[in-house]
UniProtKB/TrEMBL annotation, chain A:
Chief localisation class: membrane
Reactions catalysed according to its record: 4 Fe(II)-[cytochrome c] + O2 + 8 H(+)(in) = 4 Fe(III)-[cytochrome c] + 2 H2O + 4 H(+)(out)
Annotated TM spans: 15-39, 60-80
Subcellular location: Membrane
Identification of the protein by name: cytochrome-c oxidase
Family note: Belongs to the cytochrome c oxidase subunit 2 family.
Keywords, alphabetical: Copper, Electron transport, Heme, Iron, Membrane, Metal-binding, Respiratory chain, Translocase, Transmembrane, Transmembrane helix, Transport
GO MF assignments: copper ion binding; cytochrome-c oxidase activity; heme binding; oxidoreductase activity
UniProt keyword annotation of 4Fe-4S present: no
Annotated source species: Sphingomonas chungangi
TrEMBL record, chain B:
Sequence intervals crossing the membrane: 38-59, 79-104, 124-143, 163-190, 202-228, 248-273, 285-306, 318-336, 357-379, 391-415, 427-448, 468-492
Cytochrome oxidase subunit I profile domain span: 28-530
Keyword list, A-Z: Cell membrane, Copper, Electron transport, Heme, Iron, Membrane, Metal-binding, Respiratory chain, Translocase, Transmembrane, Transmembrane helix, Transport
EC number: 7.1.1.9
UniProt record, GO biological process: electron transport coupled proton transport; oxidative phosphorylation; respiratory electron transport chain
Name of the molecule in the record: Cytochrome c oxidase subunit 1
Catalysed reactions, semicolon-separated: 4 Fe(II)-[cytochrome c] + O2 + 8 H(+)(in) = 4 Fe(III)-[cytochrome c] + 2 H2O + 4 H(+)(out)
């Protein structure tokens, strides 16, 4: 049997098995009736075959239509209500970045530790995945956690889980993505928090993500325009994340991750009001991971909010 | 009565039928007779069915072991793409409408032909041209995008013959639109005297509802395919995120066609099954009017549920909620139909002929397919099951267990009318039963695989999934036998079968009032309808039911 390894799993299974029960009942009733009628009314038996009583038909039709509708709506409500809490991402969560590409999963922990086709997480801690793809659509699916989320190019999608049981679980790419789709798999290792901390410490530590972004910010020449000493007109990026930005056409957007990313890759798409559209596109210059790091750096420039550790 | 002549075209002296009006190839290829076009379609879709089936066989062979040892990854991807493209657009969509529908709809409404006979012939030519494009793509080396053509894989990353295949699908769409327009016009304009809307057989209603969906949904498929061609050929940035396009937009367009397309496949099947069950149970269809409304409601709501394919694609939670809600709503009319078929058996006088076995098989498989649809309409359960074998099993229950069983049932039911020959009843029953069990052996294990998490479109898989895959592949052998048997006894029937009477099943419906096979213009004089459909009841008869002389009875 499939382990219920996340806090979400039991709720999903409850609905799943509830539906199995319902299906068995309905298959039983329909199959039972068909069989009974098939035997009782097979050609040649002496069963009564006269006209139906008058109330059969209209009243019966209306009756079972209403009953079915009621059952259907009940299941809808039941399932939707169970999903609602999962739609809300938890506020305090370990935030892990995932970049998918044909045909591998690249994972970055906030501390800068990187993994490929593997993800180590502590048990009992909500983990939020911020995901994007470098090429085609992939999907991050972990059956044991009952989670799945498509990973899109040019956009961030996220999902979260809280692992409940220590162990190794399958990670599958569940959106067909070309030749080696079937090999785009990995292992999720759920560890006790202490073991996880030990594991983290043993890994070769790169710069943490925001720190890496800070270096790139200079290396790629962003600071020449956005830096404190810059002499070209460009908006300051401090405290940008989460704020409302007024655009040149007068509309407003919230500066979320997608906005930051778009500003780097296609600056002409949303031009900040009051500035010339002089920023060059970094499409193809900064790699997907570098964009992730830059976004992390800009987010960390926020005085109020600091990266969840 | 067995006549001593042999061969399909042999006839009693003086007898003429649509089959004998001209026997040259030209007289077939340029015929505007709806019955001959139906035959042309039947032969072509049979060809495609076996091509698609061959691909399925290789898929099941590969999945017998967890390693990718029988095919390479690329070959496997081409195989399932081929299987999907051929089976959906070149078999399932045209199957019942273009063959049985073409043949029967004018007969059922008492017309000489469809409203636009030449458009009808053109539809077949479009189908063939489209088939040639798609087969060319296949012969050159295949397509590896899956039948769903998701972007940006299909537009920017695939190195296979996407353009040819997409163009083929673009063209085949027009053949369904032509059929749809023809059927709508036929039902509106060519009903004979006394054939009111509420006297239309349910098969005719099914064709009508299907045609509405075909005409309204297929242009959207054409759009989707053209946009793919535009981005691939001219680099028009529609789905390319780097140029500001939206890859998910494609999924919206694609499923806006492809969900209704499920109803293009299943509504005709519902029509066929209603005819067979009513006749073989000697009963008026229970809740005839509700059956009609249910089909129309399905056709309409079918357009509003496409987002249930995208619960994990990154669409907004609100959208997911609404699509989930509507998907539950559309389950209601489908359930009503199942209850009504069951109700039709009540107080019937049931004969277990081969068509009836197929029809009862349909009811069972369709019910299970529909119920598992509820799993996929529930958002949290769908998140777990989407893109796993559960989905594969679900839609095969609907489209193969449902639509194909009904197609086979219909083929047997109207075979005597179409060919003027009877087939071997015992072989046919045996095939129907084999098919039912083979189908369940093949696809039921896939529900379990899906729950356990095995993703679809994987040619390699972790070893713990092997048991279920072996079961499924073994079942597929039984299923294949079930599909091959009719080829044998139908061929024998054409050459050597007993001559069929005009109405061997003693069915109601105008098609049974004319000769078997029907004359070129269907009826010698225009029929007049005086009764409601399915006037099977003869209340004067003693308990014990209709006469016992027709068929061999189960002891
Ligand atoms: Cu993939
Ligand atoms: Cu759908």
């Amino acid at each position: 049997m499939l382990p219920e390894a996340s806090t979400l799993a039991p709720a999903v299974d409850r609905i799943f098995w509830g539906l199995v029960g319902l299906s068995v009942v309905i298959m039983g009733v329909v199959g039972g009736l068909v069989l009974t009628f098939a035997i009782k009314y097979r050609r040649g038996t002496k069963a009564y075959r006269g006209p139906l009583p008058d109330i059969m038909s209209r009243e019966v039709e209306i009756g079972w239509t209403v009953a079915t509708l009621f059952v259907a709506l009940f299941i809808f409500w039941w399932a939707a209500a169970a999903q609602l809490p999962h739609f809300l991402l938890p506020k305090k969560a370990l935030e892990i970045h995932v970049v998918a590409k044909q045909w591998m999963w690249k994972v970055q922990h906030p501390e800068g530790v990187r993994e490929i086709d593997a993800l180590h997480v502590p048990v009992g801690v909500p983990v939020k995945l911020e995901m994007t793809s470098q090429d085609v659509i992939h999907s991050f699916g972990v059956p044991a956690f009952r989670i799945k989320q498509d990973v899109l190019p040019g956009r961030y999608t996220s999902t979260w889980f809280e692992a409940k049981e220590v162990g190794d679980y399958h990670l599958f790419c569940t959106e067909y993505c070309g030749t080696d789709h079937a090999r785009m798999t990995g292992t999720i290792t759920v560890m006790e928090p202490e073991a996880y901390a030990r594991w983290l410490a043993e890994q070769p530590h790169g710069e943490d993500l925001a720190g890496e972004g800070a270096q790139l910010f200079t290396a790629l020449g962003c600071s020449a325009c956005h830096g404190a000493q810059a002499r070209v007109p460009a908006p300051s990026l401090a405290n940008l994340y989460g704020s409302q930005v007024v655009l040149a056409d007068g509309s407003r957007v919230t500066a979320d991750e997608d906005y930051l990313r778009e500003s780097i890759e296609r600056p002409e798409a949303k031009v900040t009001a009051g500035y010339p559209s002089t920023m060059p596109s970094y499409q193809g210059i900064a790699s997907e991971e570098q964009v992730v790091a830059l976004v992390a750096y800009i987010k960390s420039q926020d005085g109020k909010r600091s990266q969840a550790r | 009565m067995r006549s001593d002549d042999t061969g399909l075209l042999a006839r009693e002296p003086g007898e003429t039928s649509y089959l004998t009006e001209g026997t040259t190839l030209r007289s077939w290829l340029l015929s505007t007779d709806h019955k001959r076009i139906a035959i042309l379609y039947a032969i072509s879709i049979t060809g495609f069915f076996f091509i698609g089936g061959a691909a399925a066989t290789m898929i099941r062979l590969e999945l017998f072991t967890p390693q990718g040892d029988f095919t390479t990854a690329d070959e496997y991807n081409r195989l399932f793409t081929l299987h999907g493209v051929i089976m959906v657009w070149f078999f399932l969509v045209p199957s019942i409408p273009a063959t049985l529908g073409n043949f029967l709809l004018p007969l059922m409404v008492g017309a000489k032909d469809v409203a636009f006979p030449r458009l009808n012939l053109m539809s077949w030519y479009l189908y063939i041209i489209a088939g040639i494009f798609t087969l060319t793509a296949l012969l050159l080396g295949g397509v590896d995008t899956g039948w769903t053509f998701y972007t940006p894989l299909s537009t920017l990353y695939s190195n296979s013959y996407v353009l040819l295949a997409a163009f083929g699908i673009f063209v085949v769409g027009f053949s369904s639109i032509a059929t749809g327009i023809n059927f709508i016009a036929t039902v509106h304009l060519l009903r004979t005297k006394g054939m009111t809307w509420m006297r239309l057989p349910l098969f005719a209603w099914a064709m009508y509802a299907t045609s509405l969906v075909m005409v309204l949904a297929t242009p959207v498929l054409a759009m989707a395919m053209l946009l793919i061609c535009a981005e691939r050929l001219f680099g028009l940035p529609i789905f390319d995120p780097r140029a500001g396009g939206d890859p998910v937009l494609f999924q919206h367009i694609f499923w806006f066609y492809s969900h209704p397309a499920v109803y293009i496949m299943i509504l005709p099947a519902m029509g066929v099954v209603s005819e067979i069950i009513a006749c073989e149970a000697r009963r008026r269809v229970f809740g005839y009017q509700f059956m009609v409304y249910a089909m129309l409601v399905i056709a309409v709501i079918g357009f509003l549920v496409w987002g249930h394919h995208m619960f994990v694609a990154g669409q907004s939670p609100f959208a997911s909620m609404i699509f989930s809600f509507l998907s539950f709503v559309i389950a209601v009319p489908s359930a009503i139909k199942v209850f009504n078929w069951t109700g039709t058996l009540y107080r019937g006088s049931i004969r277990f002929s081969a068509p009836m076995l197929y029809a009862l098989g349909f009811v069972g498989l369709f019910t299970l397919g529909g119920l598992t649809g509820l799993f996929l309409a529930s958002i949290p359960v769908d998140v777990h099951l989407s893109d796993t074998y559960f989905v594969v099993a679900h839609f095969h229950y609907i489209m193969v267990g449902g639509a194909v069983s009904a197609f086979f049932g219909g083929l047997h039911f109207w075979w005597p009318k179409i060919t003027g020959r009877m087939y071997s009843e015992s072989f046919a029953r045996f095939a129907a039963i084999t098919l039912f069990f083979g189908f369940n052996f093949t696809f039921f294990p896939q529900f379990i695989l899906g729950y356990l998490g095995m993703p679809r479109r994987y040619h390699e898989y972790p070893p713990e999934f092997q048991v279920w895959n072996v079961m499924s592949s073994t079942g597929a052998v039984v299923l294949a036998i079930g599909y091959l048997m009719p080829l044998g006894y139908f061929a024998y029937s054409l050459l050597n079968g007993k001559r069929a009477s005009d109405n061997p099943w003693e069915a109601t419906g105008l098609e049974w009032t004319t000769n078997s096979p029907p004359p070129k213009h269907n009826f010698l004089e225009p029929p007049v309808v005086l009764t409601e459909p399915y006037a099977y009841h003869d209340w004067d008869e003693a308990p014990g039911g209709a006469d016992e002389t027709t068929q061999d009875e189960p002891a």
